[in-house]
Amino acid sequence: MSFGQRLRQRRRELGISQGELAKALGVSLSAVSNYENGQNAMREDVLLRLFRVLDVDPNYLYQDSLGDRGFACTAEEETLVKKYRALSLTGRQTLQAVADALTAYQAELETAAPEAETRQIPLYRCPAAAGLAAPVFGEDFDYIDVTGEVPRGAELAVRIQGDSMEPWIQDGSVVYVNHDPLENGDVGIFCVDGAMVCKQYVRDGLGMVYLFSLNRQRSDADILLPPSSGRSMACFGRVLLSGRPDIPGM
């Protein structure tokens, strides 16, 4: 068994994900994957942290290259070995049968549900004029990893430029968007007469659509769309915010 295979085995024994190990070692998720696949070698400082995180003797991960003399147990494993040796023959056979069954069960789980790769979403990077969102379609974008900072359910990200949505959305910040239907008071990404805007959505009982700026000092950037205006409007998604802004008095 190679170094990378032993690393993966020990990580799984401890119930540590690749992401958790990457964070503990101070490296990227892809670096951990490369270590386990044997594509990259660890720096000495990372290797020392690895021994502490996995609670193993250095020889444990290099066992094959050192031969049987290089094998070293962790303190936990030594305790288990002592308990095993203290058992009767029947007890040892029972323990071996349980270990075999658990090993087979774990192999089945790993085959049925392999470790998930990091999910990515597009970040549209071309900003428009003040108060407008980056165009959602037909523009260049970069893929970004979905981390703990990204709201659950985010399907894309858009960079906002301008102050019309402050203090909820700062100039130059990135907002996360999904395709859930909008309700009154939600903030969305809209295309109005060909221009992309980020605004708060309200529709009244008469069919009038209001697209409000959250920064009321920029109420000049509000957009009103009467049913008979003939103007075009399309919604490209709902902005995921940590709260729900108040709707301005109408």
Task: Show the helix and strand layout.
Elements: H1 3-13, H2 18-25, H3 29-37, H4 44-54, H5 58-61, H6 63-66, H7 75-86, H8 89-112, E1 120-124, E2 132-133, E3 141-145, E4 156-161, E5 174-178, E6 187-192, E7 195-203, E8 209-212, E9 223-225, E10 233-239
Parallel strand pairs: 1-4
Antiparallel strand pairs: 1-3, 2-4, 4-5, 5-10, 6-7, 6-10, 7-8, 8-9
Helix pairs in contact: 2-3
Tell me briefly what this model is.
The chain has 250 residues and is an alpha+beta fold.
Summarize the structure in words.
With 250 residues, this protein is α+β, with helices and mostly antiparallel strands. It folds into two domains: 3-86, lambda repressor-like DNA-binding domains (434 Repressor (Amino-terminal Domain)), CATH 1.10.260.40; 120-239, Umud Fragment, subunit A (Ribbon). The protein is 33% helix and 21% strand. It contains eight helices and ten strands. Strands 1, 2, 3, 4, 5, 6, 7, 8, 9 and 10 form a ten-stranded mixed beta sheet that branches. A hairpin with a 2-residue loop joins strand 6 and strand 7 (195-203). Helix 2 (18-25) packs across helix 3. It is elongated and about 85 Å long. It starts with a helix and ends in an 11-residue tail after the last strand. Mean pLDDT is 80; it is low at 65-71 and 127-137.
